[in-house]
Design a protein that fits this description.
The chain has 265 residues and is α+β, with helices and mostly antiparallel strands. Helix content is 32%, strand content 26%. The strands form four sheets. Strands 2, 3, 4, 5, 10 and 11 form a six-stranded antiparallel beta sheet that branches. Helix 1 packs across helix 2 (81-98).
């Protein structure tokens, strides 16, 4: 999505070698009073939780933004950074309490939810999907930090709450209690509180050095770096070859061995 005018939105889904597609995305320009909404959800153990988030998260965010705006009693000209952060946190909390346990005890989904108001950007992250923004001076700016079980602060939190980080076998990736390869997730409530739904929420103010946001599931990030994504997008933009961006990114990820679902916008 381009900034500040959001004049373009590029969306791609690719199932890869998996039996079914578990990734979901959502986008709504001007969800309420100048706020844009975009989100990526990467389901695991099935697509039920990701599908639930796709359907319900945007509506919850919209309702809470409407309440915030109404309570200001005036047009929201001076954006309240902490208040919008609270909207995002409360939206995650509400959707977690609403989601049926029948689909969320043993299945889950990562979530990256972005709210944009002009050049103001809020990003709520839960899991290992990722959001980045280009920057002409340094190439790429990471807007999220992946929640992997062996990330030092995540491992400390898991252990402090009585869990452990272990591999299921020697060549495996670290997992929460030897089971889940992400340390935060919506759903997977059988692993709570070692796996938590609470998002990390960050605020950014875009400048003239920033041109677009890119949000994707880990089918891209497992094999392609932030700067490589930005380089491909920039090259295609310069050549006005917008339609090949998705094909080139997927081809690079697949060529390096990614077999996972891929979704980005």
């Amino acid at each position: 999505m381009l900034l500040p005018a959001s004049i373009m939105i590029l969306i791609l889904e690719d199932q890869g070698d998996r039996e079914y597609m578990e990734d979901r995305w959502a986008y709504e320009k001007n969800i309420v009073d100048g706020f844009d909404y975009m989100a990526i959800f990467d389901g695991h153990g099935g697509a039920d939780v990701a599908s639930y988030l796709k359907i319900h998260m945007g509506n919850i965010v919209k309702e809470k933004l409407q309440v915030l705006i109404a309570n200001h009693q005036e047009p929201l000209r001076n954006v309240e950074v902490e208040e919008i952060k609270q909207v995002l946190f409360d939206s995650f909390k509400q959707v977690v309490h609403q989601i049926p346990s029948i689909i969320s005890l043993h299945t889950g989904s990562t979530a990256v939810v972005v709210i944009k108001y002009g050049k103001h950007i809020w990003v709520a992250n839960c899991g290992d999907s990722r959001a980045i923004m280009n920057d002409v001076s340094c190439g790429a700016v990471a807007l999220t930090d992946d929640h992997k079980p062996d990330r030092p602060d995540e491992e400390e939190r898991i252990v402090r709450r009585g869990g452990l980080v272990a591999k299921a076998f020697r060549e495996d990736v670290p997992r929460v209690n030897g089971i889940l390869a992400v340390s935060r997730s919506v759903g997977d409530f059988v692993l709570y509180p070692h796996v938590t739904w609470e998002p990390e929420i960050k605020y950014f103010l875009a400048t003239d050095k920033n041109g677009y946001l890119f949000v994707a599931t880990d089918g891209i990030w497992d094999t392609v770096s932030n700067i490589e994504v930005v380089d491909i997008i920039n090259r295609c933009f310069v050549a006005h070859q917008y339609k090949v961006i998705g094909r080139e990114l997927v081809a690079l990820a697949r060529g390096r061995g990614s077999t996972d679902n891929i979704a980005f916008l």
